[in-house]
């Protein structure tokens, strides 16, 4: 039980040598420490088996080593990941069968298992140390500071990393007004999408009247492909709990709720454990640090509807009602959960708070750009060599992210665009690659920061198809309350569908633009207000691709199936007839062992079966 700062300091002192060893600082604990990632990505490729086998063999062979679980390192593509200290040796794609060799060679003989080291794709060089890998080198981790470093299931490891010291400081030495002021001065803006100034939001919630107020954390994370918030919750859950308690003190609330989707079982489990441990240590509950401040946190599980991430819908859903947005004002700061003043922030926003208090607002404000301070976590996906979770200072260029950290486009293909902001964002073409990443710059380009999805597209991606994908998502996820959103997005989708089928007309492009304006202007919530962005941005930067689909009945990327011609290469065809037998449409003609076969375009259904069947690779799409 922690009664005061001294108890916290004692725990920190005890566990610090282990953390020093992992940070490669003086005062490190002796012996090997083996860290195994247990985030969702690595768990799904059986990292638990690796961890259990490591623990078993270490015991069996009486090795001077301890095995720890950690959260996500961000390099999930290479998982299961194992990192060994001292030496910060990173092993990739580790299987249970590799464990014996790691124990024998690395832990007993002190040598490196070369074959499990990461190989830089460009140079083919094997990198031993985690920090030597380009993917990690250009990053700056603030929100992700403890992910991959500490055991998220052990509160003492968080305390060893100065966890709960910000809360102690605030409760013992600061006034609530000073806390709000520090958040304001830091320049932190909401990481959930809109980028609203966090300090201003705290100020409004603090100024709201009433004896009962709430602090809520938005961990709904509905954007397809995004996993920033999940990784923070899985890798460092206490940072969010600590921040929520600080927020509670700042605005005068005694209760907090984390709204997290039930499809995140590891995150939910880690949060439950973290809350239980924090209560056990007296860091949540009554009279925290022996002050008059009481604060506790509970979970609310969401069913995973995208619209439930919208703040007013989330608050309704958390209160057990239907998760539908309502008009604002009143804002949650005045009328939120159960009608009471409520402060609502995103997971990553909260994760920054304890560091801002500890290191000072000026330190945080020194990172990033004039109007977008600090760092931002992105989930980098699509056509880049190094996909994964990254954190960079605001103002880093898109080029650095795609080509330096991401390692560029695989197989020597051409970069086409980078899609940011998920369903609310847009596609940014090559000529803007040197744009610094910040809220305003991305918006100016017709895209958005959003919550941090970043998908790289190359020449084999069709932008019309991408726009259709996101619009389909918004259409499916619309709650249907307002007609422009419900019907407008459906009309837009029908037009896009026609275009990808080669049935589009040039007037369709104007109609898409008009509908976009109407949907954006007349929708009640952010979903409808931003749903047309993927269409508008692709129309703006890649109009020629839309025109190729309409005028030439051609998909330049070779994606839209209805627009592809299946052709047989006469040079390669050996007239075996296998393709003709596969074709249900009887569209392939020829004589066995005779002249090359050919495809009748009129009859072809474009099913692709012949292409898959040809043993000579003689069939291609044009
Ligand atoms: C359709 C829709 C979905 C949203 N989904 C999320 C989400 O999953 N997570 C999140 O933090 N914010 C989401 N937001 C933004 C929230 O409404 C809100 O602005 C945010 O949680 C506030 O926290 P912040 O100021 O820390 O960003 C969504 C907004 C809309 C319109
Ligand atoms: S804009 Fe769409 S999702 Fe938002 S309230 Fe209206 S219908 Fe529902
Ligand atoms: S694509 Fe399908 S329908 Fe067309 S020729 Fe090949 S097998 Fe026949
Ligand atoms: S399967 Fe290939 S090689 Fe055989 S007839 Fe068809 S195109 Fe020619
Ligand atoms: S889940 Fe293991 S590196 Fe991301």
From TrEMBL:
Q: What is the lineage of its organism?
A: Bacteria, Bacillati, Bacillota, Clostridia, Eubacteriales
Q: Which InterPro entries does its entry note?
A: 4Fe4S_Fe-S-bd (IPR017896), 4Fe4S_Fe_S_CS (IPR017900), NADH-UbQ_OxRdtase_51kDa_CS (IPR001949), Nuo51_FMN-bd (IPR011538), Nuo51_FMN-bd_sf (IPR037225), Nuop51_4Fe4S-bd (IPR019575), Nuop51_4Fe4S-bd_sf (IPR037207), Thioredoxin-like_sf (IPR036249)
The reply on keyword Glycosyltransferase is no
Q: What GO molecular-function term can you cite, just one?
A: NADH dehydrogenase (ubiquinone) activity
Q: Identify the residues that the record assigns to the 4Fe-4S ferredoxin-type domain, covering every copy.
A: 564-593, 595-622
Q: What is this protein called?
A: NADH dehydrogenase (Quinone)
The family this protein is said to belong to: Belongs to the complex I 51 kDa subunit family.
The protein's UniProt keywords, in alphabetical order, are: 4Fe-4S, Iron, Iron-sulfur, Metal-binding, Oxidoreductase
Q: What class of enzyme is it?
A: oxidoreductase
Matching PANTHER family: NADH-QUINONE OXIDOREDUCTASE SUBUNIT F
Q: What SUPFAM superfamilies does its record include?
A: 4Fe-4S ferredoxins, Nqo1 FMN-binding domain-like, Nqo1 middle domain-like, Nqo1C-terminal domain-like, Thioredoxin-like
> What single Pfam family name could you report for this chain, choosing any that match?
NADH_4Fe-4S
Q: What is its EC number?
A: 1.6.99.5
Asked whether the keyword Zinc is assigned, the reply is: no
* Superkingdom to which the source organism belongs: Bacteria
